[in-house]
Amino acid sequence: MKKLGVALIGYGGIGRVHAIAYRNIPFHYGLPADSIRIVGVATSNPDSAQKAAAEIGCEIGTADYRELLAHPEVDFIDCCLPNNLHEAVVIAAAQAGKHIYCEKPLAMNVAEAQRMVEAVEQAGVKTQVTFNVRFYPAMQRAKQLIDDGFIGRVFSYRGRYYRSSYIDASKPLSWRLSRAVSGGGALFDLGSHILDLAYYLLGEFGSVQATLDTLIKERPVAAGSSEMQPVDVDDIALMHTRLKDGTLGLFEISRMGTGATNDCIIEVFGDKGALRFNAADMNWLEVYDARDPEKPLGGMRGFRKIETIGRYDGAKSPDWSHTPGFIRSHAECQYQFMKAISHDKPAAPNFTDGLHIQAVMEAAERSSEQGRWVKLSEVGG
């Protein structure tokens, strides 16, 4: 793989995760240490930029991301900014001829996402969206089994992503709770991930019926403040969906799931078998084979766990027997993008995939407002 330089645009919590993952990639795959180099980092002000650069150990810390776009040693940018800033950075990067890796969701809405797709297609640069959950080995194995016909005809699917991160009414407002900055709430934050898993495993969506609700309708403007402001994004989203082929499925998405730490679960049911994955037990994929013989005492029928552990193709360290973690899934997502750039191959999930998920979410919002099924074709998806 050829040597690549990346510029981090944004360095909040997820930016730090991405930086750790880039550092780890050479160790995972036995590559030279300089295979991936973080050339610089851009943040919102000079002081935080310098602090971020010192932490990362890179040459440049700047409050002007365009300085990094002009740098000849930057091959691609990694956009880790709040959602409302994605479009401007992506279009500028495309015009500068840089490949683009971007955090989910792709944009604030379908119109923005479409402009971003048009910009990168016109520029001829490669793109990828950070849907890292599909890069757990269990999800790669699930995709393989479905494509091989293990579950047969798909009857239905079900996804759930619950966290308890906003159950405290005294938790103050943040950018994730502001529609002007985030574009949406739990649906955008968590739903984009679980929707992408179904899309990855089963194909494109066709229509959506959804109900979105805000359960805590106002919050303090800052920690300890008595001043309150309205929350204008969803805390919970309940969705019926149909794939393009008509297959029906359900999704539950909430940041108000008391007791849930990071419960990301997807199930697929078919006429020959079924699959179930829970990110809380990420080392295993549960499978059910309806072809197992049925005997008076039950035989061997039932869900069983098959090990997937750390089976990443080509990985040298840690070996397959060691369990993967959250950052490892990011490292794999980023590594696959680097390989696509290095070998001039298509990257996935790309911005067109991100646009499709954006359309599902926009259709869900319209459905909740209008109380009806909404086809993706109505919102440009």
Describe this structure in words.
With 381 residues, the chain is α/β, with parallel strands linked by helices. The protein has two domains: 129 residues, 3-Layer(aba) Sandwich (Rossmann fold), CATH 3.40.50; 203 residues, Dihydrodipicolinate Reductase, domain 2 (2-Layer Sandwich), CATH 3.30.360.10. Helices cover 33% and strands 24% of the residues. The protein contains ten helices and 17 strands. The strands form three sheets. Strands 16-15-14-13-7-12-11-8-17 form a nine-stranded mixed sheet. Strands 3-2-1-4-5-6 form a six-stranded parallel sheet, sandwiched between helices. Strands 9-10 form a two-stranded antiparallel sheet. α4 runs parallel beside α5 and α6 packs across α8. The chain is globular, with a radius of gyration of 21 Å. The two termini are 35 Å apart. The mean pLDDT is 95.
How confident overall, as mean pLDDT?
Answer: 95
Report Rg. 21 Å
Structurally, the number of domains stands at 2
The CATH first-level class of the largest domain comes to Alpha Beta
Secondary-structure arrangement, i.e. CATH architecture of the largest domain: 2-Layer Sandwich
Q: Based on CA inertia axes, which overall geometry fits?
A: globular
Secondary structure: elements and pairs:
Elements: E1 4-9, H1 13-29, E2 36-42, H2 46-56, E3 60-62, H3 65-69, E4 76-79, H4 86-95, E5 99-102, H5 110-123, E6 127-129, H6 137-147, E7 154-162, H7 179-182, H8 186-202, E8 205-213, E9 218-220, E10 228-230, E11 236-243, E12 248-254, E13 263-270, E14 273-278, E15 284-289, E16 304-307, H9 326-342, H10 351-370, E17 374-375
